Amino acid sequence: MRWVTVALMMLLAACNDRTAAPVVPDALNFGLNVPVFMGTTRATNDAGEFGIERATKLRLLKTTVSIPPNRELGSVSDGYDRPKPDRDFAIAELQQFDEPAGFTRSLRAEIDARSTDRREVTVFVHGFNNSFADSAFRMAQLGHDLEIPGAHVSYAWPSRANPLGYEYDRDSALFARDGLADLLRTVRSAGQPDVIVVAHSMGSALVMETFRQLEIAQPGWVGANIRGVILMSPDINVDVFRSQFRQIRDVPDPFVVIVSRKDAVLRLSSRLRGQKTQLGNIDNAEEVADLPINVVDVTAFSDRKSGNHFVAGSSPALIQLLRRSSDLDREFLRGSSGAVVLLPGQRRVITGPVSRPIDLAEESTGL
User: Fold this and answer.
1) Quick check: 230 and 201 in contact, CB under 8 A?
2) Phi and psi dihedrals of 177, rounded to 5?
3) Among 15, 103, 137, 317, which residue has the least CB neighbours within 10 Å?
4) Burial of 95 per CB tally in 10 Å (0-12, 13-18, 19+)
5) CA distances (Å), 123 to each of 29, 138, 155, 226, in order?
6) Cα–chain-centroid distance for residue 74?
7) Residue 280: which region, alpha, beta or left (left: phi > 0; alpha: psi -120 to 50)?
8) Distance between CA 293 and CA 344 in Å, rounded?
């Protein structure tokens, strides 16, 4: 069975130590250099790098990520403790801010350098089994490959970066709520930009818990401060999601959930819980049809390296389709300039391939 294969792959991957995050200044001379602002609740380890332990204080940073030349679209190569910048992603620069004011000044300068219609800030929240470096690399890759406008921020919560660390990561995701709330407030204060939150897998559960917490403390905060939300392959029980969602008084528009029925990782996650599906691989849209969200079904596309768990960010075919929009937020999600039209409570099935005209089938039920 496919889920057994995925489990075996996870066991084999557990032999690798993926927590190294060296700074490689020479990487500035290779490929493309992408600024990624970061917030992290990871504690530093004996090597002075952000490891797997939890820190109560949010640290604010700015990194420069070097994207290697001649790589496959959607791919992220990591050399771990010995990256080779001609073929691997690498952290070329890392600046730590002692106070939030320094972070906001630097982020505001990055925002102001953009044209007035491209001053969004995208905040990416990674999922299960990610290192500090993974968090920076994936935001840089998504921003570049999907041509996401504006400034880019990544939240590196303390995942163990080990496929056998699922329970540790679930606890860490709960622990990391305060840090994400602080980061969102800090980003919002940097010139009051439009903020788009993008989360993957278990990071989606962290985002929804943080939204719930923010709404309890200040009803209406999410709708007033978050312009759009994209949950990719969310590893959340549907009943839990509905409970979290009910707390949001003013729902950001758009609010998009990207799903795939071929997601082997979520199939395994569901089995561990004794459930049929998680939100990210639901097979019946009626489960969320009453919510003001947009469900995008990408089952037609594949990313075997991730077990079809990160198709929206790793499938070259789907990336080529999405990047046709000059502005992912306004055009792909809102439907202007001939792009995909998504209306609240509806679902779209993207059926590619991109070499042919885009075939979009609209259905209200029956994912």
Assistant:
1) no
2) -60, -45
3) 15
4) middle
5) 27, 12, 7, 10
6) 14
7) alpha
8) 5
What is the maximum alpha-carbon separation in the chain? Answer: 53
| Other Cβ atoms within 10 Å of 217 Cβ, number | 9
Q: Which of 27-36, 110-119, 220-229, 336-345 has the least mean pLDDT?
A: 336-345
Give 305's DSSP letter. Answer: G
Rounded Cα distance, 349 and 359, in Å? 8
Joined together, the tokens standing for residue 264 give: 């082997």
Burial classification of residue 254, based on how many CB atoms lie within 10 Å of its CB (0-12 exposed, 13-18 middle, 19 or more buried)? buried
CA distances from 210 to 24, 60, 64, 123 (A): 33, 18, 27, 13
Pick left, alpha or beta for residue 345 (phi over 0 → left; psi -120 to 50 → alpha; otherwise beta): left
At CA 169, angle to CA 167 and CA 170, rounded to 5?
65
> How far, in Å, CA of 162 to CA of 169, rounded?
9
SS3 182: helix
Structure tokens at 74: 């959607």
Per the structure block, which two tokens stand in for 186? 């800090």
Residue 80 pLDDT: 87
Find the range with the poorest average confidence among 133-142, 178-187, 222-231, 345-354: 345-354
CA atoms within 13 A on the CB side of 243: 8
Report how far apart, in Å, the C-alpha atoms of 343 and of each of 186, 254, 255, 294, 364 are: 31, 9, 10, 7, 11
In eight-state DSSP terms, residue 163 is: T
Treating both helix axes as pointing N-terminal to C-terminal, what angle do 2-13 and 264-273 enclose, rounded to 10 degrees?
Answer: 100
CB–CB of 136/124 below 8 Å?
no
Please, what sign has the CA dihedral across residues 146, 148, 151, 157? Answer: negative
**Both tokens of residue 166?**
């699922």
- Pull the structure tokens for residue 15: 């032999």
Given a cut of 80, is residue 73 above it in pLDDT? yes
Strand partners of residue 318: none
Yes or no: say if 66 and 28 are a contact pair by the CB < 8 Å rule.
yes
Q: What angle do CA 155, 211, 218 make, to 5 degrees?
A: 120
pLDDT band at 349 (very low <50, low <70, confident <90, very high): low
